[in-house]
Design brief:
The protein is α/β, with parallel strands linked by helices and about 450 residues long. The chain contains 15 helices and 18 strands. It is about 35% helix and about 20% strand. The chain is globular.
Length: about 450
């Protein structure tokens, strides 16, 4: 079940060569991190206060924000400037739940048997670029063996994309949401044999520890567990608990040894409660989140990443005959439609909320629509924007991104209009800078 590292590395390098002509004709990478720039912003989103402030000038040098100067016309002698005086500048956004190697379609379930890892690696290059161009300068990829290699290719400057925190293979129990052999026939299952911790499937405390250590060996940045059943897995239950509290604690304690944080996919109430009790950093999806779960999350400081986009997407596609297998379709219809209401309820109850879409379920590059759905759920626009900037940085455990301030990474995006007054503005990003490199200009 393991994907050879060399295979993926070759695929990504080949993908770069394939995409070079298109990239050369695009407006991307129009500067480099060593080029100092001044950005004249008509408005800036202050992620700390959640307010849109008036004109400011940002001096960017060596990939960092060097100065933030009040007023939009402050020129620095000998430094090239970018005119964004009719736009709102914001810290680059972070999507805390994506899957960069895949994108849902009616063919998704058969492609796992028909396609090779190199095919998914090729696709991930295009998905990464779309994500960056939409204003997302960082992502957390929560499950996918392509992601660590895509991360490395981006870091080496071979391909364009967001900064990636990669989970690698998600950790499940036998038959759980991330069991890679779900849906296999008896002959194939017997030929391959039961997956174990190396493949991300555990059934004991020792297995749990080994699975985390394997993720460390594989080069993961974060740990993902599937604490309950899921919507799109080829299995009947979408919400049954699939880890014991002790198993969650074994994962979390071992992850802590390596400096990892743990994200827990969870739809069902009991499995969610166990994950929070076991010490995970964040709950993803959280469909059937109860008052009991919310109370414990507030006590433990657990984050909630709603992924409203994915819920709405699968609920809509469940109406189409043949889009999902018969075992998946009723789960998609029942569970997907509930997530938006849960997000609003969690916000009203004081649960800490951070931004994530589960993109890869829906089409990459449309990530910002999650902001619109969050506002529809009753979450103020400023809070939604904070969830993808300063709050997302807190979830990741980093202190050098998520706000426009001296010393921070020069991750800056801009859009016409004021997103706090009109959240639809987030869909019109036309300036993207990551680490001081301009990838998109008006």
């Amino acid at each position: 079940m393991r994907v050879p590292v060399a295979c993926l590395a070759i695929a990504l390098i080949n993908a770069v060569a394939t995409l070079q002509p298109a990239a050369a004709q695009s407006p991307a990478a129009v500067s480099d991190s060593g080029t100092p720039l001044t950005l004249h912003c008509g408005r800036v989103f202050d992620a700390r206060s959640g307010q849109v402030l008036g004109p400011h000038t940002l001096l960017v040098r060596n990939g960092r924000i060097e100065q933030v100067i009040s007023g939009g016309n402050a020129d620095v002698l000998g430094v090239e400037s970018v005119d964004l005086r009719d736009r709102t500048c914001s810290p680059g956004w972070t999507d805390l739940h994506v899957h960069m190697a895949s994108q849902s379609s009616p063919q998704s379930y058969s492609e796992g048997f028909r396609l090779d890892p190199v095919d998914f690696a090729y696709r991930s290059v295009g998905y990464a670029r779309k994500t960056l161009m939409a204003g997302f300068t960082s992502v957390r990829d929560l499950g996918g063996e392509v992601a660590p290699h895509l991360r490395d290719a981006i870091n080496q400057g071979l391909v364009e994309g967001p900064r990636i925190w990669a989970a690698g293979k998600s950790i499940a129990t036998t038959g759980g949401h991330a069991d890679p052999t779900n849906g296999y026939n008896d002959a194939l299952s017997h030929l391959i044999g039961p997956p174990g911790p190396t493949e991300g499937v555990i059934n004991s405390l020792d297995d749990a520890r080994q699975a985390v250590r394997q993720r460390y060996k594989d080069g993961s940045d974060v740990i993902k567990i599937t604490a309950t059943g899921g919507v799109l897995s080829y299995a009947k239950s979408g919400d049954a608990p699939q880890f014991t509290v002790d198993e969650v604690r074994a994962v979390v304690d071992t992850a802590n040894d390596y400096g990892y944080r743990v994200a827990a996919h969870a739809h069902g109430e009991e499995g969610m409660y166990r994950a929070v009790a076991g010490g995970v950093t964040s709950i993803e999806h959280g469909t059937y989140m109860s008052d009991r779960v919310m109370k414990l999350m507030k006590e433990k400081g657990t984050w909630y990443v709603p992924t409203v986009y994915a819920g709405r997407f699968v609920a809509d596609k469940a109406k189409i005959d043949g889009y999902f297998p018969d075992v998946v379709r009723p789960k998609a219809a029942r569970i997907g439609a509930l997530i938006q209401d849960t997000a609003g309820k969690a916000y009203r109850n004081g649960v800490k909320i951070a931004f994530g879409t589960d993109m890869g379920v829906g089409p990459h590059g449309d990530n910002a629509r999650e902001f619109v759905y969050m506002v529809e759920a009753g979450i103020p626009a400023a809070v939604a924007l904070q969830s993808a900037t300063i709050r997302a940085a807190e979830v990741l455990g980093v202190d050098d991104q998520g706000e426009l301030a001296p010393g921070m990474r020069a991750d800056v995006i801009a859009m016409p209009g004021n997103p706090v007054e009109n959240i639809e503005t987030v869909m019109a990003v036309d300036f993207v800078m990551k680490d001081g490199v301009v990838y998109r200009k008006p």
